[in-house]
Task: inverse folding
């Protein structure tokens, strides 16, 4: 039916114009319902299908005007790929590589220490290498969090909260042994990003879930291993295997999530609206 | 003038009960005796803004296979409507009194 084509074309065009609006899909659904209601009313008033469709569209306004109004009205949140979000994607990929390096270096450090190998400085050297990788990973993660928030069109309050937690987490990695602090702050950042992103589908949902779950999962592993007293006890009363195992779980999950986020953000062409 | 009072008009229509966007526009047109025949595309940004300001809330339902968003007034919206209505009474009363004393030029 010709009339159907008119509304479908209008809705498709509107959908394209509103693609950077966080709630664009919902707004398009709403206006689609409006057009259908107007069309039905026109038909019941005795107009032909084509005329009813044409009138419904005319009364709503041209796509140019309606899209402009819907993109510029106060409070509208846009989720646009920019050069910053692309740079954030690269940072996410750096972090995705750096997190496993942390695990590798610290695991090797623990094993060397346990075996008491010939070179006495090896465990310390590996631990420091892991700590440097940790700082790089956390700092890159902070940039990635800021980019994801920007790309998702996250509300300013949540964006500030997420970025503050991520940056504080990166700073806290200066005390690499105090994993509860930096991992807790990174977990908080992940949670805020996940909870404030229910409307936007700019990045795959699973990446946000994995990112938010990474450090809480690590904490659960740490608690379980401590409770079961897995491994040996060091001179400070800690359980190196529990610590390393927990960091491994958190780091691997974070790396998988950041890899997915990074690949999405890096491949998007910055848009100008 | 209508632009400045759009919020009041939308709140007043929704004070009568929850409505979806098309019904709001239809009601506005009908209750104003077709005087307020707005460009329909301009009403939605206003509804979204009022929701952002928490004067309205919306829910989604599925009717006849399509998603429909229904708006309703919040408690804050009811309070805002009372304030805006009082302002409007003061304003329209003042304009009425002012215009009452005007000698209108003859039109040919």
Result:
């Amino acid at each position: 039916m010709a009339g159907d084509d008119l509304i479908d074309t209008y809705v498709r065009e509107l959908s394209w114009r509103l693609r950077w609006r966080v709630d664009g899909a919902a707004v398009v659904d709403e206006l689609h319902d409006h057009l259908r209601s107007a069309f039905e009313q026109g038909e019941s008033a005795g107009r032909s299908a084509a005329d009813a469709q044409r009138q419904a569209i005319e009364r709503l306004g041209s796509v140019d005007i309606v899209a402009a109004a819907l993109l510029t009205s106060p409070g509208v949140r846009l989720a646009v790929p920019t050069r910053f979000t692309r740079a954030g994607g690269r940072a996410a990929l750096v972090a995705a590589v750096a997190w496993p390096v942390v695990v590798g270096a610290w695991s090797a450090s623990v094993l060397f220490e346990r075996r008491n190998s010939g070179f006495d400085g090896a465990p310390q050297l590996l631990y420091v290498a892991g700590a440097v990788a940790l700082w790089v990973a956390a700092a890159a993660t902070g940039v990635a969090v800021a980019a994801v928030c920007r790309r998702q069109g996250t509300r300013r309050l949540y964006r500030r909260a997420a970025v503050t937690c991520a940056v504080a987490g990166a700073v806290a990695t200066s005390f690499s042994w105090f994993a509860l602090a930096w991992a807790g702050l990174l977990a908080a950042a992940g949670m805020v990003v996940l909870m404030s992103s229910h409307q936007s589908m700019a990045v795959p949902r699973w990446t946000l879930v994995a990112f938010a779950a990474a450090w809480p999962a690590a904490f659960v592993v740490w608690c379980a291993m401590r409770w079961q007293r897995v491994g040996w006890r060091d001179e400070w009363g800690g359980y190196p295997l529990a610590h390393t195992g927990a960091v491994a779980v958190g780091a691997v999950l974070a790396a998988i999530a950041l890899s997915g986020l990074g690949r999405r953000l890096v491949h998007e062409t910055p848009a100008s609206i | 003038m209508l632009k400045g009072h759009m919020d009041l008009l939308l709140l007043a229509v929704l004070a009568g009960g929850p409505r979806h966007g098309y019904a709001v526009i239809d009601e506005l047109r009908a209750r104003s005796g077709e005087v307020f025949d707005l460009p329909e595309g301009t009403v939605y940004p206003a509804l979204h803004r009022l929701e952002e300001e928490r004067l309205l809330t919306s829910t989604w339902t599925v009717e006849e296979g399509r998603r429909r968003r229904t708006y309703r007034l919040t408690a804050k919206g009811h309070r805002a409507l009372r304030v805006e209505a009082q302002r409007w009474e003061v304003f329209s009363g003042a304009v009425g009194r002012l215009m009452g004393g005007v000698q209108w030029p003859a039109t040919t």
